[in-house]
Write a structure and sequence with these properties.
EC number (chain A): 1.1.1.37
Number of helices of chain A: 13
Number of strands of chain A: 14
Strand order of the largest sheet of chain A: 3-2-1-4-5-6
Protein name (chain A): Malate dehydrogenase
Organism (chain A): Oryzias sinensis (Chinese medaka)
InterPro entries (chain A): L-lactate/malate_DH, Lactate/malate_DH_C, Lactate/malate_DH_N, Lactate_DH/Glyco_Ohase_4_C, Malate_DH_AS, Malate_DH_NAD-dep_euk, Malate_DH_type2, NAD(P)-bd_dom_sf
Oligomer: homodimer
Catalytic activity (chain A): (S)-2-hydroxyglutarate + NAD(+) = 2-oxoglutarate + NADH + H(+); (S)-malate + NAD(+) = oxaloacetate + NADH + H(+)
Helix content of chain A: 40-55%
Distance between the termini of chain A: 51 Å
Order of helices and strands of chain A: HHEHEHEHEHEHEHEEEEEHHHHEEEH
Chain lengths: 384, 328
């Protein structure tokens, strides 16, 4: 829309200039007017080419890694921020990965993508986070052989504290931050606490992958395509305590919308194997591929970010890990917890008033307890 | 119904998502994806199937993972042959050709036996041109025009190099040509290329204003880009290869824009540029109604002619070696 308006203004201005110019000139005849107008029309037509929205700055950390490799292409193609939104992509990783990053930059160039204005590889946070509009924090310390959960938390607290501070110092205050690197919820909380001048609502963590997996499991069970399943919810932590809840989910069966429990007709599965399948899917993929699930993670990241940017559809909600303060479901405050969410004007809101039965309550509490424990351990490290 | 071979590998991993999303065959075209790889890779293939399911893509009706040709090639509308024998340490060019002749003869025969006669086949696995020729010759009941090999990656790389030199987005560069073999003898030719600058549309040589670069380093950069990416990433260029495959297949399916041409390795018999017959050679091509046509009457100067001949010579040598194995 703004582009069309700008073009119209430009054409009108040039027409006026043409008319005024020909009136003021000595050769005050129709021929001159036509000539002037055609010259200006040509320049307007050609000037149409670069006339586009201002580029946004997007940083991806862990940019030399697997998930980023699947993700960067989709971002640069326009699948996340829109087909008319030019992008400046900043790729952040640790110094040993800089040569690999150069290879990634080469490949992005070779993809010949029109929206990609610039690609900046770096290992410096002051470059990585400068003036950014969106940050996707994929990089984190992976769990190594023999590592305890505590060690993993300690290492990641250090990383996300630094990145939170960098966001606070260099990024735009309107920046939207999506934390992917695990443990995602707690890393997100640490980053948010280390960036006090950025609203906590701008931070979220990824549970969309679990959400998509849950949709897909229900869809396959019902023999429909996964876009016919909606309003699945992932509650809690992006870990094996997550609770995939389909009590409010709907399935479109041959044109009529049916509740998931009625569509599947197998309560035992929905309360048992379905839940564990979704919870343990990540491990199943690693076991088969010998690598973690980059393709589907990248797809989920795109879905999550795109919904933040453009909003969710009327009557539909998706799952996101967000700051729990003020929630109406009795979840402890001061956590990043995955809720059912609707988004409008780049602002999310937890879907309120969904009835919660005892079965769901127990599971929601269990995952909250794990998050409280993680948070307390992490805050210990933070204060050191 | 679309088949991808080498489906457990790197390039396929970047490619399958784009296909299933609708970027190649259209946003309203449902797809049944067939994934073929060798038996040891079946567990990895299972993981890929899981991930495709987890992507929750509406157009993906079904995904079938298999190591059997009679399953993989059945009733195909499109086949993307990515899988090939990679060059191992100490392998001679001859050994590579011999191993791949076996693979592509078998797959050509399977296409002949099981696929629809209207199938479009894109060969990616290297040596792409010669593998494509072998497959076409092993599938006599499928028109040779339905076979092509990928030189779109080199084409995109050339566009990108010119674009960066001129400071414009890569989509402002068109009608670049890649002649010949998808190897280091390929000839990236910009004599007919146009660049859209803020001052208007210019011939490439006028836009770049550096003839020696265009005849020297530019060519070498595009020819060796693959090796440069491997050196940096320690892995070959899956992302950009997948993008090029999508571009190539999508242009076959939906046609090329008016006045623009792209590069594809196609059967050279009947070509207007004096390139030897019975090769798969990369030409400038326009596509309409799923049929390609070589862009003819482009002026060819001596500089271009010698480069076009050199890459043709390499292709003839490859073909003769391969055909010898085929007969054995």
């Amino acid at each position: 829309m703004p582009r069309a308006l700008a073009v119209t203004c430009k054409v009108i201005c040039l027409l006026l200039i043409g008319v005024v110019g020909s009136l003021l000139s000595e050769k005050n005849d129709l021929q001159f007017l036509v000539l002037t107008f055609s010259v200006q029309f040509k320049s307007v037509t050609l000037g149409l080419l670069p006339l586009q929205a201002e580029p946004i700055r997007v940083v991806v950390t862990g940019a030399a890694g697997q998930i980023a490799y699947s993700l960067l292409f989709s971002i640069a193609k326009g699948d996340v921020f829109g087909k008319d939104q030019p992008i400046i992509l900043i790729l952040l990783d640790i110094p040993p990965m800089l040569p690999v990053l150069d290879g990634v930059v080469m490949e992005l160039q070779d993809c010949a993508l029109p929206l990609l204005r610039e690609v900046i590889p770096t290992d410096k946070v002051e470059v990585g986070f400068k003036d950014i509009d969106a940050a996707i924090l994929v990089g984190s310390m992976p769990r190594k052989e023999g590592m305890e959960r505590k060690d993993l938390l300690k290492a990641n607290v250090a990383i996300f504290k630094t990145q939170g501070q960098a966001l606070d110092k260099y990024a735009k205050k309107t920046v939207k931050v999506l934390v992917v690197g695990n443990p995602a919820n707690t890393n997100c909380l640490i980053a948010s606490k280390s960036a006090p001048s950025i609203p906590k609502e701008n931070f979220s963590c990824l549970t969309r992958l679990d959400h998509n997996r849950a949709c897909s499991q229900v869809a396959m069970r019902c023999g429909v395509s996964s876009d016919k399943v909606k309003n699945v919810i992932i509650w809690g932590n992006h870990s094996s305590t997550q609770y995939p809840d389909v009590h409010h989910a709907k399935v479109n069966l041959s044109g009529s919308e049916v509740s998931a429990y009625d569509a599947v007709k197998n309560d035992a599965w929905l309360r048992g194997d379905f839940i564990s399948t979704v919870q343990l899917r990540g491990a199943a993929v690693i076991k088969a591929r010998k690598l973690s699930s980059a393709m589907s993670a990248a797809k989920a990241i795109c879905d999550h970010m795109r919904d933040i940017w453009f909003g969710t559809k009327e009557g539909e909600f998706i799952s996101m890990g967000v700051y729990a303060a003020g929630n109406s479901y009795g979840i402890p405050e001061d956590l990043i917890y995955s809720f059912p969410i609707q988004i409008k004007n780049k602002t999310w809101k937890v879907v309120d008033g969904l009835p919660i039965n005892d079965f769901s309550r127990a599971k929601m509490d269990a995952t909250a307890a794990e998050l409280v424990e993680e948070r307390d351990t992490a805050m210990d490290f933070l204060s050191q």
